[in-house]
Amino acid sequence: MSVGENVSTLTSGDTTISHWVTSKPIRNASFNIGRFKEHVVNTDAGLPINVLMSEKRDPLLEKYLFDRGFAFGKDMEKYVGDDMASSIAFFTKMYGENQIPKFYATEISYSHGEAFPGLIHLAWETFQLQSYEGEDQIFRAHEVAHQWWGIGVDFKTYHDQWISEGFSDYSGAWYMQVVLNDNKKFFKQLEEWKKAILKNRKYLFHSDQEAGPVWLGYRTESSSTRGDYSLIVYKKGAWVLHMLRNLLLDWKTMKDDRFVNMMRDFYSRYAEKEASSQDFQQVVEEHVNSSMQWFFNQWLYRIKIPTYKFAYKVTETPEGKFKVRCRVKQENVDDDFQMIVPLLIDFGKDQVSRVRVMVNNTTNEFDLPPLPLEPKKIVFNDLESVLCEVDYEGW
Length: 395
Prior knowledge:
four-stranded mixed sheet, Immunoglobulin-like, five-stranded mixed sheet
């Protein structure tokens, strides 16, 4: 199996030679050779999905897993095929139609995945055991998402590679959130990414070289900053999309319509083209109807991540309403750093309200609008809307 279309196949004795041609230039190409059993999923859109899984299991690998209490999963090619079909349908809905002429998912004997036009390689592990924490869904959907981000919309330079990898990482997590209907697993994944970013080379008594900005692309990884390409371009890049998603979230309906419309607009404009970070910023600004230079400066071109120290006190007014005085201290960022941070006001009995607050270095204390009920608690940075650390203080 290869990228492109099979235009000829010649078999002579034990040798088969096939000729594959792509209809247009592509960034990278691959093929996979082996003995596979094929599982075909016919989608509603009429796109057949072919899953190629190794016919035989490595006996040494089987013993390795058995000795550790694991066994090979049954019908794993069907689980993989279901994720392929479901994620393609999800991304088509969220981002727009993708002109994929064919789609193959093939098992490889390595622990990574890689995407090519109409073809993805998936690590052998995802064909062995069914995970219940969402990692498989994220991994598989990440590679599928590349048909939109990285292949459908190509990145212009290495500075813009987060449009491929960061977008696909977040797409995988978003898909997992929806297909499993599990916000807890989704936020757990975001939390794990955040912890890795915040703890990057920070030790008990000293810190080594800090990771570079998202904009630096693969150059953020060097002999002294190993792992930073994946950490920053993939995971921090994914966090940038999450912050934009929550910035556009409708608090009344909790719907993502504005974010979805923005992503569909960006994809439709640059499908079959190269896009830069500046191109994406322009689309974002059109949908936000405001300059977002401050946001992209902070999250693409700089490296600082804020720590917020939050406190509040509640007093009852003579009219029987409740006044909430809030205090925020912003630390570990430049003086001009600013972010819009949501607050969740929890009144108990499933009654909540949300407000957005612009926080910067001049923001110290502010009052919320008078409340009809006494809040049971107030959550700063609801829904993990900002990549940051939050400490709660007493008043």
